[in-house]
């Protein structure tokens, strides 16, 4: 923890009702008008209403932290947590101004001690009784919780039609821009990231066939977690002319077995590197050892021929870094001979 939490649990209710109308961060050109309006968004099936922009946001993971920093909201943050790797260089100076409540997953006690008026996370898994508490429990305290739309695509389908993971990520930016009164910043962020995707589509590599890929994010014990249909990597695969081998699984990061992976016979395997997080199975090296140690996986041509691509795990998350994985993926496929 870089700075100790300075406010007690008893101050939570007071902080939720004493939020100022302007943070002084230049987030709105007409702060008073922005503060007077009621803003309503729906996050993962729950309606959230704000009379004033939040002033004490707590991010439950690095992805959410970097989204807030990309929107220039470091002065509106009461804390951050769960750092998986080094903060991106472009956000480092802003990040250094934010209290680190915990380098690991935040507990309910740590969250409440920070007296937030808003909390957000990339995944619903952070909002459980054994972590910060359920979203219902937090709502009873008057604390609104926001979850990335990427983690709940069904609740965020427009008119019954499915949205791509990147479109859901852009929805996050737009909704957060409305909540914090920084709509123009959000529009510019969406514009910049759309340009990256447009460039990927314009320069789509000449891929031989449609190689199948398995994205391995985590390995706990002997259990791999891979990208399913609603995860950002599934869309990345499509954008570069590959096919996610677990695209038929209607989840973002399903828990599977190595036997299931082997049955899909992927042409190549992407392994996420989270070595700086420091848990067993986090590093790309640990994942490769687990893959080679499994007798079924060891016989796969992709494993025997070392058809692996390493990508930072944070770039597989729903975050401002996701678009950076595209050129890495293309470069890896080129090295493996899948790009002419």
From TrEMBL:
Residues of the signal sequence? 1-20
Statement: the UniProt record of this protein carries the keyword Hydrolase: no
Using the record for this protein, list the coiled-coil segments as residue ranges, or answer none.
none
Q: Which residues form the Fe/B12 periplasmic-binding domain?
A: 56-340
What keywords are annotated for this sequence in UniProt? Lipoprotein, Signal
Which Gene3D superfamilies does the record cross-reference, listed alphabetically? Nitrogenase molybdenum iron protein domain
- Keyword Signal belongs to the record: yes
Instruction: Tell me which InterPro entries the record gives.
Output: ABC_Transporter_SBP, ABC_transptr_periplasmic_BD
Q: Which PROSITE patterns match?
A: FE_B12_PBP, PROKAR_LIPOPROTEIN
Record-stated family:
Belongs to the bacterial solute-binding protein 8 family.
Q: What is this protein called?
A: Lipoprotein
- The source organism is Streptomyces longispororuber
């Amino acid at each position: 923890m870089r700075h100790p939490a300075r406010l007690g649990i008893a101050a939570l209710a007071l902080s939720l009702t004493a939020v100022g109308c302007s943070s002084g961060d230049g987030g709105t050109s007409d702060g008073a008008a922005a503060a007077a309006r009621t803003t309503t968004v729906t996050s993962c099936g729950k309606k959230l209403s704000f009379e004033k922009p939040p002033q004490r946001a707590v991010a439950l993971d690095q992805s959410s932290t970097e989204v807030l920093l990309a929107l220039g909201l470091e002065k509106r943050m009461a804390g951050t947590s769960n750092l998986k790797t080094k903060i991106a260089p472009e956000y480092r100076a802003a990040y250094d101004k934010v209290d680190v409540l915990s380098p690991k997953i935040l507990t309910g006690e740590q969250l409440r001690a920070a007296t937030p008026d808003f909390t957000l996370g990339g995944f619903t898994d952070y909002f459980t009784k054994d972590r910060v508490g359920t979203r219902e429990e937090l709502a009873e305290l008057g604390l609104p919780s926001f979850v990335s739309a990427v983690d709940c695509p069904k609740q965020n389908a427009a008119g019954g039609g499915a949205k791509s993971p990147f479109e859901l990520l852009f929805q996050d930016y737009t909704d957060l821009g409305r909540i914090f009164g920084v709509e123009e910043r959000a529009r510019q962020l969406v514009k910049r990231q759309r340009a990256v995707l447009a460039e990927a589509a314009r320069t789509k590599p000449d891929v031989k066939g449609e190689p199948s890929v398995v994205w391995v994010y985590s390995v706990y014990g002997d259990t791999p977690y891979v990208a399913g249909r609603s995860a950002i990597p599934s869309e990345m695969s499509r954008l570069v002319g590959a096919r996610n081998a677990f695209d038929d699984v209607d989840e973002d990061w399903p828990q599977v077995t190595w036997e299931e992976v082997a049955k899909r016979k992927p042409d190549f395997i992407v392994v996420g590197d989270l070595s700086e997080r420091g848990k067993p199975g986090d590093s790309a090296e640990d994942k490769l050892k687990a893959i080679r140690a499994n007798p079924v996986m060891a016989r796969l041509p992709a494993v025997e021929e070392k058809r692996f691509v390493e990508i930072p795990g944070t770039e597989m998350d729903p975050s401002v870094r996701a678009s950076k994985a595209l050129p890495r993926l293309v470069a890896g496929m080129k090295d493996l001979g899948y790009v002419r």
